[in-house]
Design a protein that fits this description.
globular, alpha/beta, 190 residues, five-stranded parallel beta sheet, 8 strands
Length: 190
């Protein structure tokens, strides 16, 4: 089922961020939300995740969706190892998937390393990987490739395309090239 926003309004401290926002996010497709900073892109993701509720308007098509998200910040537990950061989202019988998944993103040997001691690009890839390992129907990506060089961006985009094939994906980006790499078919400008 498609996800639909109908005349959604959301304000923070009396300041409107979304006013009469309507959009459709087609099931099983990649949608890209673009626009200048401060226009409500992350707010749309927070509404999709259920973290926020609209002040008015209607959002339909979310009730049966399992959601996974890559935030603008990596949100890793710095004191834990890479493996432990990934294991926290997996049942124990799936921990065997961790090492092959790390290798797919060029993170061979990173499993025992403390997350706080990783480079920014490594942390970003671990955050992406963590979102990919969780079973999901809806994947929300808030500027997921921030800080990655072109080669790593392409590797991560390929992994996301493979893992999210047939799933609903919503990408927030300032870079249309990133949306094209993910195969975006639905474009929403804010």
């Amino acid at each position: 089922m498609d996800i639909e926003f109908k005349r959604v309004n959301k304000a923070f401290d009396g300041r409107p961020v979304l006013e009469g926002f309507s959009a459709v996010f087609p099931e099983g497709r990649v949608s890209a939300i673009t626009g200048p900073s401060g226009q409500g892109k992350t707010t749309v993701l927070r509404l999709l995740s259920g973290e926020l509720k609209p002040d008015s308007g209607e959002i339909s098509g979310l009730s049966d969706k399992r959601v996974s998200m890559v935030f603008q910040e990596d949100r890793l537990v710095g004191a834990l190892s890479v493996k432990d950061n990934l294991a926290m989202v997996l049942p124990k019988d799936r921990w065997g998937a961790i090492e092959p998944a790390l290798c797919a993103l060029g993170l061979e040997g990173a499993a025992p390393r403390q997350a706080a001691k990783l480079s920014g690009g490594m942390r970003r890839r671990v955050a992406i990987l963590r979102a990919m390992l969780v079973p999901f129907d809806l994947l929300l990506l808030d500027e997921p490739f921030k800080g990655l060089d072109k080669a790593l961006l392409e590797i991560c985009a390929r992994t996301i395309r493979e893992k999210a094939q047939g799933k609903t994906v919503v990408l927030v980006t300032h870079d249309e090239r990133e949306a094209r790499l993910l195969g975006a078919e639905n474009w929403i400008a804010l």
